[in-house]
Amino acid sequence: LAMVACGPPAGRGNGGGDDTGGDDGPDAGDQVWPPGDSGSGCQKLDLLFVIDNSGSMGQEQMNLIANFPQFINVLNASGLDYRVAVTTTAVDYKYTMAFPIGGNVAQSTGAGEDGAMIKPASCNMTKRWIEKTDPNPSQTFSCAANVGTSGNADEMPLGAMRMAFEERMSDMTNAGFRRSDALLGVVFLTDEEDCSYEQPVNLSFGQSLCDSQMEPAVNYVSFLDQYTGHRSRWAAAAIAGMGPGNCMSTFGNANEATRLKAFVAAAGSQARMSSICDGDLSVSLQQTLALFQSACGDIIF
Fold it and tell me: Beta partners for 235?
Protein backbone atom coordinates (compact mmCIF):
# COMPACT_ATOMS: atom_id res chain seq x y z
CA LEU A 1 0.00 0.00 0.00
CA ALA A 2 1.60 3.22 -1.13
CA MET A 3 1.98 5.91 1.48
CA VAL A 4 -0.11 9.03 0.99
CA ALA A 5 1.56 12.32 1.84
CA CYS A 6 0.08 13.36 5.16
CA GLY A 7 2.12 16.16 6.65
CA PRO A 8 1.27 19.84 6.64
CA PRO A 9 2.68 21.82 3.74
CA ALA A 10 5.91 23.71 4.29
CA GLY A 11 5.47 27.18 5.68
CA ARG A 12 1.98 26.59 7.05
CA GLY A 13 1.03 28.64 10.10
CA ASN A 14 2.05 31.89 11.65
CA GLY A 15 3.38 30.94 15.04
CA GLY A 16 0.30 29.25 16.47
CA GLY A 17 -0.99 32.03 18.71
CA ASP A 18 -1.82 35.67 19.12
CA ASP A 19 -0.44 38.28 21.51
CA THR A 20 -2.80 37.15 24.26
CA GLY A 21 -1.61 33.57 24.13
CA GLY A 22 -4.74 32.36 22.33
CA ASP A 23 -4.65 29.92 19.45
CA ASP A 24 -5.19 31.58 16.09
CA GLY A 25 -5.05 28.35 14.10
CA PRO A 26 -2.78 25.40 13.41
CA ASP A 27 0.88 26.26 12.94
CA ALA A 28 3.74 24.32 11.40
CA GLY A 29 4.02 22.21 14.53
CA ASP A 30 0.41 21.01 14.42
CA GLN A 31 -0.16 17.75 12.59
CA VAL A 32 -3.03 18.19 10.18
CA TRP A 33 -3.78 16.91 6.74
CA PRO A 34 -3.10 19.64 4.13
CA PRO A 35 -5.81 22.31 4.03
CA GLY A 36 -7.45 23.92 1.03
CA ASP A 37 -8.11 27.59 0.61
CA SER A 38 -11.42 27.43 2.47
CA GLY A 39 -10.58 24.99 5.26
CA SER A 40 -8.19 24.49 8.13
CA GLY A 41 -7.28 20.85 7.57
CA CYS A 42 -8.11 17.81 9.65
CA GLN A 43 -6.86 16.95 13.08
CA LYS A 44 -9.49 14.27 13.76
CA LEU A 45 -11.10 11.46 11.75
CA ASP A 46 -14.11 9.36 12.80
CA LEU A 47 -14.18 6.36 10.47
CA LEU A 48 -16.89 3.71 10.10
CA PHE A 49 -16.42 0.53 8.07
CA VAL A 50 -19.69 -1.05 6.91
CA ILE A 51 -18.70 -4.61 6.01
CA ASP A 52 -20.84 -7.13 4.15
CA ASN A 53 -21.19 -10.24 6.32
CA SER A 54 -23.19 -12.36 3.90
CA GLY A 55 -22.14 -15.84 2.78
CA SER A 56 -19.92 -14.76 -0.13
CA MET A 57 -17.68 -12.30 1.71
CA GLY A 58 -15.10 -14.40 3.57
CA GLN A 59 -12.18 -13.76 1.20
CA GLU A 60 -12.87 -10.04 0.92
CA GLN A 61 -12.88 -9.68 4.70
CA MET A 62 -9.54 -11.49 4.95
CA ASN A 63 -8.03 -9.24 2.27
CA LEU A 64 -9.24 -6.13 4.08
CA ILE A 65 -7.71 -7.42 7.31
CA ALA A 66 -4.41 -8.22 5.57
CA ASN A 67 -4.09 -4.72 4.11
CA PHE A 68 -5.37 -2.73 7.07
CA PRO A 69 -2.04 -2.49 8.96
CA GLN A 70 -0.58 -0.32 6.19
CA PHE A 71 -3.78 1.76 6.17
CA ILE A 72 -3.29 2.39 9.90
CA ASN A 73 0.40 3.17 9.36
CA VAL A 74 -0.59 6.02 7.06
CA LEU A 75 -3.09 7.37 9.59
CA ASN A 76 -0.47 7.15 12.34
CA ALA A 77 2.07 9.02 10.20
CA SER A 78 -0.49 11.74 9.46
CA GLY A 79 -0.78 12.67 13.12
CA LEU A 80 -4.58 12.44 12.93
CA ASP A 81 -6.50 11.65 16.09
CA TYR A 82 -8.59 8.85 14.60
CA ARG A 83 -11.36 6.52 15.66
CA VAL A 84 -12.34 3.42 13.70
CA ALA A 85 -15.55 1.43 14.14
CA VAL A 86 -17.08 -1.55 12.36
CA THR A 87 -20.67 -2.50 11.63
CA THR A 88 -22.19 -4.86 9.08
CA THR A 89 -24.63 -4.64 6.19
CA ALA A 90 -27.11 -6.82 8.11
CA VAL A 91 -30.33 -5.00 8.98
CA ASP A 92 -33.50 -6.55 10.39
CA TYR A 93 -36.45 -6.04 8.09
CA LYS A 94 -40.16 -6.71 7.95
CA TYR A 95 -42.60 -6.80 5.06
CA THR A 96 -45.90 -8.32 4.05
CA MET A 97 -46.49 -10.50 1.00
CA ALA A 98 -49.81 -11.10 -0.71
CA PHE A 99 -50.54 -14.81 -1.27
CA PRO A 100 -52.69 -16.25 -4.10
CA ILE A 101 -55.10 -17.90 -1.68
CA GLY A 102 -55.76 -14.51 -0.16
CA GLY A 103 -54.45 -12.42 2.67
CA ASN A 104 -51.15 -10.76 3.43
CA VAL A 105 -48.54 -12.71 5.37
CA ALA A 106 -45.97 -10.93 7.50
CA GLN A 107 -42.33 -11.82 6.80
CA SER A 108 -39.25 -10.79 8.74
CA THR A 109 -35.54 -11.38 9.18
CA GLY A 110 -33.70 -10.81 12.43
CA ALA A 111 -30.21 -11.04 13.94
CA GLY A 112 -28.85 -7.99 12.11
CA GLU A 113 -26.55 -5.47 13.76
CA ASP A 114 -28.89 -2.68 12.63
CA GLY A 115 -26.00 -0.23 12.55
CA ALA A 116 -24.62 -1.12 15.98
CA MET A 117 -20.85 -0.73 16.09
CA ILE A 118 -19.65 -4.17 17.02
CA LYS A 119 -17.63 -4.97 20.12
CA PRO A 120 -16.79 -8.69 20.03
CA ALA A 121 -15.79 -10.08 23.41
CA SER A 122 -12.88 -11.91 21.80
CA CYS A 123 -11.35 -8.61 20.64
CA ASN A 124 -10.89 -7.18 24.16
CA MET A 125 -12.35 -3.82 23.13
CA THR A 126 -13.17 -1.35 25.89
CA LYS A 127 -15.45 0.69 23.59
CA ARG A 128 -17.42 0.11 20.40
CA TRP A 129 -14.63 1.72 18.43
CA ILE A 130 -10.84 1.67 18.18
CA GLU A 131 -8.73 4.72 18.97
CA LYS A 132 -5.23 5.74 17.96
CA THR A 133 -4.14 5.56 21.59
CA ASP A 134 -5.27 1.94 22.01
CA PRO A 135 -2.46 -0.59 22.57
CA ASN A 136 -2.69 -2.19 19.11
CA PRO A 137 -5.31 -0.58 16.83
CA SER A 138 -4.39 -2.67 13.79
CA GLN A 139 -4.67 -5.97 15.63
CA THR A 140 -7.95 -4.97 17.24
CA PHE A 141 -9.41 -3.96 13.87
CA SER A 142 -8.31 -7.28 12.36
CA CYS A 143 -10.32 -9.00 15.07
CA ALA A 144 -13.40 -6.78 14.78
CA ALA A 145 -13.46 -6.78 10.96
CA ASN A 146 -13.69 -10.56 10.88
CA VAL A 147 -17.47 -10.26 10.96
CA GLY A 148 -18.21 -13.69 9.54
CA THR A 149 -20.48 -14.77 6.72
CA SER A 150 -23.79 -15.58 8.39
CA GLY A 151 -25.44 -12.19 7.89
CA ASN A 152 -28.60 -11.38 5.96
CA ALA A 153 -28.51 -12.12 2.24
CA ASP A 154 -30.30 -8.83 1.49
CA GLU A 155 -27.42 -6.44 2.18
CA MET A 156 -28.26 -2.89 3.24
CA PRO A 157 -25.00 -0.93 3.55
CA LEU A 158 -26.64 2.48 3.11
CA GLY A 159 -29.39 1.71 5.58
CA ALA A 160 -26.92 0.30 8.11
CA MET A 161 -24.79 3.44 7.85
CA ARG A 162 -27.76 5.69 8.56
CA MET A 163 -28.92 3.52 11.44
CA ALA A 164 -25.42 3.71 12.96
CA PHE A 165 -25.67 7.49 13.18
CA GLU A 166 -29.41 7.82 13.76
CA GLU A 167 -31.21 5.03 15.65
CA ARG A 168 -28.06 3.66 17.31
CA MET A 169 -27.09 7.14 18.46
CA SER A 170 -30.61 7.85 19.76
CA ASP A 171 -30.70 4.64 21.82
CA MET A 172 -27.12 5.31 23.04
CA THR A 173 -25.65 2.14 21.51
CA ASN A 174 -23.06 4.11 19.51
CA ALA A 175 -23.06 7.16 21.77
CA GLY A 176 -19.71 8.88 22.19
CA PHE A 177 -18.23 7.88 18.85
CA ARG A 178 -18.96 10.99 16.84
CA ARG A 179 -16.97 14.19 17.40
CA SER A 180 -18.32 17.37 15.87
CA ASP A 181 -14.82 18.65 15.01
CA ALA A 182 -13.77 15.50 13.12
CA LEU A 183 -14.10 14.51 9.48
CA LEU A 184 -16.63 11.67 9.29
CA GLY A 185 -15.42 8.89 6.99
CA VAL A 186 -17.42 5.88 5.82
CA VAL A 187 -16.13 2.85 3.91
CA PHE A 188 -18.60 0.39 2.38
CA LEU A 189 -17.31 -3.08 1.47
CA THR A 190 -19.76 -5.37 -0.33
CA ASP A 191 -20.07 -7.66 -3.34
CA GLU A 192 -23.82 -7.16 -3.75
CA GLU A 193 -26.34 -4.48 -4.64
CA ASP A 194 -27.62 -2.30 -1.82
CA CYS A 195 -31.11 -3.28 -0.72
CA SER A 196 -31.97 -0.45 1.67
CA TYR A 197 -35.70 0.09 1.29
CA GLU A 198 -38.47 2.44 2.31
CA GLN A 199 -40.83 1.12 4.95
CA PRO A 200 -43.45 -0.23 5.17
CA VAL A 201 -43.19 -2.70 2.29
CA ASN A 202 -46.04 -4.70 0.77
CA LEU A 203 -44.99 -7.19 -1.89
CA SER A 204 -46.97 -9.19 -4.39
CA PHE A 205 -46.53 -12.97 -4.32
CA GLY A 206 -43.03 -13.98 -5.42
CA GLN A 207 -41.76 -10.40 -5.61
CA SER A 208 -38.21 -9.82 -4.35
CA LEU A 209 -37.68 -7.31 -1.58
CA CYS A 210 -34.64 -5.90 -3.37
CA ASP A 211 -36.52 -5.31 -6.60
CA SER A 212 -39.04 -2.91 -5.15
CA GLN A 213 -39.51 0.21 -3.06
CA MET A 214 -35.83 0.97 -2.64
CA GLU A 215 -35.15 4.28 -0.91
CA PRO A 216 -33.47 6.75 -3.30
CA ALA A 217 -29.70 6.71 -2.81
CA VAL A 218 -29.61 10.52 -2.73
CA ASN A 219 -31.54 10.40 0.56
CA TYR A 220 -28.45 8.99 2.26
CA VAL A 221 -26.30 11.80 0.90
CA SER A 222 -28.82 14.29 2.30
CA PHE A 223 -28.76 12.47 5.62
CA LEU A 224 -24.96 12.79 5.93
CA ASP A 225 -25.15 16.47 4.96
CA GLN A 226 -27.68 17.09 7.71
CA TYR A 227 -25.99 14.86 10.28
CA THR A 228 -22.58 16.50 9.95
CA GLY A 229 -23.92 19.99 9.22
CA HIS A 230 -21.99 20.52 5.98
CA ARG A 231 -21.09 18.50 2.87
CA SER A 232 -17.39 19.14 3.48
CA ARG A 233 -17.45 17.38 6.86
CA TRP A 234 -17.87 13.85 5.56
CA ALA A 235 -16.45 11.57 2.87
CA ALA A 236 -17.36 8.05 1.80
CA ALA A 237 -15.71 5.30 -0.21
CA ALA A 238 -17.53 2.33 -1.71
CA ILE A 239 -15.54 -0.80 -2.54
CA ALA A 240 -18.04 -2.82 -4.53
CA GLY A 241 -19.01 -4.02 -8.00
CA MET A 242 -18.23 -1.22 -10.45
CA GLY A 243 -20.13 -2.60 -13.42
CA PRO A 244 -21.39 -2.54 -16.04
CA GLY A 245 -22.82 -5.92 -15.12
CA ASN A 246 -21.26 -8.41 -12.77
CA CYS A 247 -17.51 -8.85 -12.34
CA MET A 248 -15.27 -11.72 -11.33
CA SER A 249 -12.03 -11.92 -9.36
CA THR A 250 -10.15 -14.30 -7.11
CA PHE A 251 -12.81 -13.39 -4.53
CA GLY A 252 -15.60 -14.71 -6.75
CA ASN A 253 -18.47 -12.84 -8.39
CA ALA A 254 -19.70 -9.36 -7.49
CA ASN A 255 -22.94 -7.82 -8.63
CA GLU A 256 -22.96 -4.30 -10.00
CA ALA A 257 -23.71 -1.98 -7.09
CA THR A 258 -25.91 0.47 -8.98
CA ARG A 259 -27.32 2.11 -5.85
CA LEU A 260 -23.89 2.68 -4.31
CA LYS A 261 -22.82 4.14 -7.66
CA ALA A 262 -25.81 6.50 -7.49
CA PHE A 263 -24.85 7.46 -3.92
CA VAL A 264 -21.27 8.21 -4.98
CA ALA A 265 -22.46 10.24 -7.97
CA ALA A 266 -24.83 12.28 -5.81
CA ALA A 267 -22.07 13.00 -3.26
CA GLY A 268 -19.75 14.46 -5.89
CA SER A 269 -16.18 15.01 -4.77
CA GLN A 270 -16.96 13.73 -1.26
CA ALA A 271 -17.19 10.11 -2.41
CA ARG A 272 -15.49 7.67 -4.72
CA MET A 273 -15.94 4.07 -5.83
CA SER A 274 -13.37 1.32 -6.25
CA SER A 275 -13.81 -2.18 -7.62
CA ILE A 276 -13.99 -5.09 -5.22
CA CYS A 277 -13.02 -7.26 -8.19
CA ASP A 278 -9.45 -5.94 -8.33
CA GLY A 279 -8.43 -9.02 -6.36
CA ASP A 280 -6.39 -7.02 -3.85
CA LEU A 281 -7.88 -4.28 -1.71
CA SER A 282 -4.59 -2.45 -1.17
CA VAL A 283 -5.23 -0.15 -4.15
CA SER A 284 -8.80 0.56 -3.04
CA LEU A 285 -7.63 1.42 0.47
CA GLN A 286 -4.95 3.70 -0.97
CA GLN A 287 -7.62 5.49 -3.00
CA THR A 288 -9.77 5.76 0.12
CA LEU A 289 -6.94 7.44 2.02
CA ALA A 290 -6.42 9.86 -0.87
CA LEU A 291 -10.14 10.72 -0.72
CA PHE A 292 -9.99 11.43 3.00
CA GLN A 293 -6.88 13.53 2.55
CA SER A 294 -8.57 15.60 -0.13
CA ALA A 295 -11.69 16.00 2.03
CA CYS A 296 -9.55 17.16 4.93
CA GLY A 297 -8.07 19.84 2.71
CA ASP A 298 -11.48 21.33 2.01
CA ILE A 299 -13.27 20.80 5.32
CA ILE A 300 -15.23 23.76 6.71
CA PHE A 301 -16.20 23.99 10.38
Answer: 185
Residue 5 included in any domain = no
To the nearest 10°, the Cα dihedral for 280, 281, 286, 291? 140
pTM score of the predicted model: 0.84
Average of per-residue pLDDT values in the chain: 84
Tell me whether residue 243 is in a domain. yes
Residue 161's CATH number: 3.40.50.410
Give 172-221 as a DSSP string: STTTT---TTSEEEEEEE-SS----B-SS-EE-TT--GGGS-BPPTHHHH
Beta bridge partners, 197, equal: 214
Give the count of domains, the chain: 1
Measure the CA–CA gap between 67 and 292, rounded to whole angstroms. Answer: 17
Cα separation, 58 vs 45, in Å, equals 27
Are the CB atoms for 190 and 159 separated by under 8 Å? no
pLDDT in tens, 56-84: 899 899 999 999 998 998 888 888 899 99
In a domain, 24, yes or no: no
Q: Is 157 helix (H, G, I), strand (E, B) or coil?
A: helix
Give a three-class secondary structure readout of 71-129. Answer: HHHHHHHHCCEEEEEEEECCCCEEEEEECCCCCEEEEEECCCCCCCCCCCHHHCCCCCC
Phi, psi dihedrals of residue 227, rounded to the nearest 5°: -65, -40
The CA R_g of the chain, rounded to the nearest whole Å, is: 20
- Strands 93-98 and 202-203 turn out to be parallel
* Domain residue limits at 164: 44-298
* Residue-by-residue DSSP string for 124-161: T-SSSSEETTSS-HHHHHHHHT---S-S-SS--HHHHH
| 3-state percent helix, strand, coil for the chain, nearest multiple of 5 | 30, 20, 50
Residue 26 lies in a domain: no
